[in-house]
Amino acid sequence: MAATAQEPSATERTGHSGWTVLEYDTQGRVVGTRRGSVSEGAVEDALPDAAAPAPDARPAHEKAVESAELLVADPPAEAEAILGRLGFSLLERITLDALAVEMLRVRTPDDLTLPEAMRRLREAMPDALIDTNDLLDLSRGAGRGAGRDAGRVQIAQTRQDYARDAVGWGQVPESCGKGLVLGQIDGKVDAKHPALIDRDLVYESLIKADRRETAEDHGTAIAIMLIGKPRPGRSGGLLPGAKLYAANIFEYWKGRRKGNLAALIRAIDWLVGNGVQVANLAIEGGDNVLMRMATHAASAKGLIMVAAAGNHGPEARPAWPAAAAESLAVTAIDRGLELYPFANAGPYIDFAAPGVDVLTETPTGLRQQSGTSMATPFITAMVALHLDAGFPADPDKIRASMKRYAHDLGEEGRDSRFGWGLVRLRPNCR
């Protein structure tokens, strides 16, 4: 795709020159470099739209959901009267200004099962989108805590922090990413962590008022991976000069870490409303008409979503929002370029990145964490490079470009385990 007035070159926009493409041999060893830019993403080479998986066939009552709740998008003007007549009660009216959607959170009648209530409400509001308020998991896997090994992990940081070398990112100056606006939807972020204390970070909690925030170790680690301050002995973030809008949707629910779909949609709306260009999503949920609505609306507003592929194993059903056609789904590999054994698989997987025993900074010290969510920041940062180089906010065109820089893993070409493979780019920051 040639640079146009709408798609200026990186030099015209920022003085940067895109990125450096790493060239490697059949054993995966780097043997050279070349410059990459917006011109490499030719329109004619764009991938076709990713086919969205068929809707989840499980009945609604088999999913993990907020009990006795339904969500209604684009309700009719007489919605409250209809709810009252049918015995439903309005819990919350949510105005999603950025997505241009009105959404209601309603309580179902005590004498109806959730599927019965949904069927009745759909009959009464045939033009509205109605589905359950699904519970969502944090897309994290097993990891190693700091604990008694904290000192040894800290001393051996340089040796153990293989992930940046694997993608060819290397060390970057503190200004790298300046002018870019990133987002994340994850757990709680400790904005007072030394790696974040003077970063351009805006944090918002979108959980229910009567519940407690959670997942601070994960949300903080991802924020630092994206924009953390480089310090002696610490690599810092992939794009430490960028601005980050971080939303927490995870709370304690019956002793477990859970998010819900209503909070996720509010978080997406918040990111779009703040001009976020690319969002890092560490969420695992199921198919849902409201989930599809939100991802489609966000993409139409110019938000590129990079989502963890899921950690329930290769036989698990597709994890959403990663499975949305508009999302870039990321799986995790280890230092030997082997697939994380708990990673989901399926035709929706786009790319692989390091996500096993990744060295992270948390509020309680250094930890090695694993899961597909640990891999997503690398692809998020690479998408940001494309946007900075003038690519349009079109997931298919960005996929088409990034597959050019992917080291094929598994079966030849795209496969259901590794996608197009491990992407390797080096930013040209100064």
From TrEMBL:
InterPro entries: Peptidase_S8/S53_dom (IPR000209), Peptidase_S8/S53_dom_sf (IPR036852), Peptidase_S8_Ser-AS (IPR023828), Peptidase_S8_subtilisin-like (IPR050131), Peptidase_S8_subtilisin-rel (IPR015500). One of its GO terms (molecular function) is serine-type endopeptidase activity. One of its GO terms (biological process) is proteolysis. The active site is at residues 186, 218, 373. The keyword Protease applies. Residues 1-12 have a biased composition (Polar residues). Residues 177-421 form the Peptidase S8/S53 domain. Keywords: Hydrolase, Protease, Serine protease. It comes from the Bacteria. Residues 1-21 are annotated as: Disordered. The keyword Cytoplasm does not apply. Belongs to the peptidase S8 family. This is S8 family serine peptidase. It comes from Marivibrio halodurans.
